[in-house]
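Figure 2 data, in text form.
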Amino acid sequence: MKPLVGVSDNKICQYRYWFNDNGETLQKVDITPVNPLELSNALIEVPNLIPAKIPDDIQMATSSSATKKAFLLPLKMQIKLQFKDLADQWSAVQTDSFEHNSQVELEIRALTVNKAQTLKKPASKELVGFSIDVTKEDSLYWQADQPCMLDFFSPSGEKLCRFSTSESLKGKKIETKQKGIYYVLLHSTIHDETYNKDKLTIIGIGNNVSDTIEVNPAGTLPELVSDPEVIVNLTLTGYLNGTDIRFIRSLPCLAKLDISAAHIVEGGDTYYENYRTADEVTGDYMFSDLPKLTRLVLSNTTITLGKKALYGCTGLTELSIPHSIKTFGEKAIGGTQGNLLLIHWNTPAAIASATFDTPEEMGNCLIYALQETECTYEGNVIINGLADKIRLTDAKGFRCPTAFKAKDISYTRTFSMTSGNKEAAAGWESIVLPFDVQTFSHAEKGELAPFNSGKKGTHPFWLAELSTEKGFRHVTELKANIPYIISMPNSDAYEEEFNICGNVTFHAENDNGVEVRSTYSSAIVRSEGPQFTLVPAYETVWQHDSVYVINRTISNGNLPGGAFVRNLRNANPFEAYAVSKDSPNQAPAYYSIGTNGSLTGLEYLLRRAEESLKVYSIGRTLYIETNRAITLPIYDREGRTVRIIKASEGRTEITDLLDGIYFSGGRKVMIGR
């Protein structure tokens, strides 16, 4: 490096450098004036920076210390250099780029399984490390009360996974088959008006750790539990009276309760308000309003499930009814907010309407019942593998462990987005259903059908499937467990007759039963495209860096319904989400559906007539009047092109069309009728 010109015998006397445009990394080095300067042997220390976004491929360095751990953050670094001469002039900035593992060493805080730890809420760029000793748990359920990201590392130091801010807030499980000390890195804590606490609490719940306690005599459970605050998974045998049930209801962290081998007996305190236990009765309100319960196994000897016994248990997703139960109280199973997805009805007792909320309030809950079971409830009941009627509610979870048949099945979705055109994709939604759809219908417009279906007397819409070679391609059938994108015509540019806005029902029926497929992962179809995989979702898939969903509002310049956008929102039930085939560091922010999402070109069939264009018919003659020469397609009622007309300025007559209904220039005309 040579000094700037302007001073006789000028020399370089100082240089400075900094990294990634971070002023805090600025370093100045005074040197003996020299001309020219060579820095081939200069040692420049690269700082260990913490970026605003922690890279997904973060690693844990090997260390002999149990209380300190170093984490390696692969970063793209940029160094900028300037040189100063004796005239106090600085040279132009020189820039170079390189890759660097930024090493951050942290004090590790020890966590205990099933015990929450509260700490000062970290700053958004602050890293906090935890360790937890896993001795017998097969999995850990992690949750924080403030949104933050969590990275998990195995006892051998291998990176396992990352929880997004929404996943850590909602709670999620990791498998822990390997025993030993696991490490957790907490970072990217959110600070905003909604989440403005100055403390953060985190807990790891051992899902397979069960405190098994025999209660004998009844009423002694409070004395048998040494630390009620840490009880998460509880299995009880012996005898339970009101004192025991009252104690169970008071456990603050209880998530799983198994009393299948216990007997409920008379005696003890009131368990809820003025209610007392009776022999072999799961009494009125006994387990009501326990939203943290995610699993409940009832006593195998109980003969009655009382009024609102399980009401308000919004955390339950599955429930098994024992064979012993003979009677049910009013709304014994209700208030679940549609979160209860599955009931195994193992008793011959009748399934009555009074036992549940209305079918609408129960959401998509399936009830699998025995062959001899009588049923007066109009919900989604399957008796010996056959259902009379199944009604599926959009955006509510749906869980079908075993395929069955339904004589009548339908699903309804509300469409409201404005559709796109050849220039800009818009109005697309993703969809997946567990049955082959036979008919599509709209309350006002009547029967619908995909473009090119060949079905007469219907209103068209767009339906597309992902293909390996060409991306999305239009199809005419919606098959079970295959993800699609769908768009209903809805634009001011279209004739109102063809605009579809509001509820659309997807339906199938057969007296011998329509097959309803299992929704388990082994039964669903993941569609492979050139850039991403499209995955069906029957239960909520939480927002994450790896999850792409279709935008509902303008995003990254894409119109609503125009792109699959990364980490935008949750994927709702009956939607599909995309997973990029690129590495996490190279995956784009979105995948535009693009013009191949609107391949058909048949939107011209739907367009409003131009002011300067008149298309009409008299008898068997079609007339086109225009003030300029145009090329105009003529479509039949199914959207097929039957003629391309080159109309001259003035009036053009077409006299050889077959009788029927046609569309041209945004007009519907009738020939010969």
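Caption note: Residues 595-601 have pLDDT under 50 and may be disordered.
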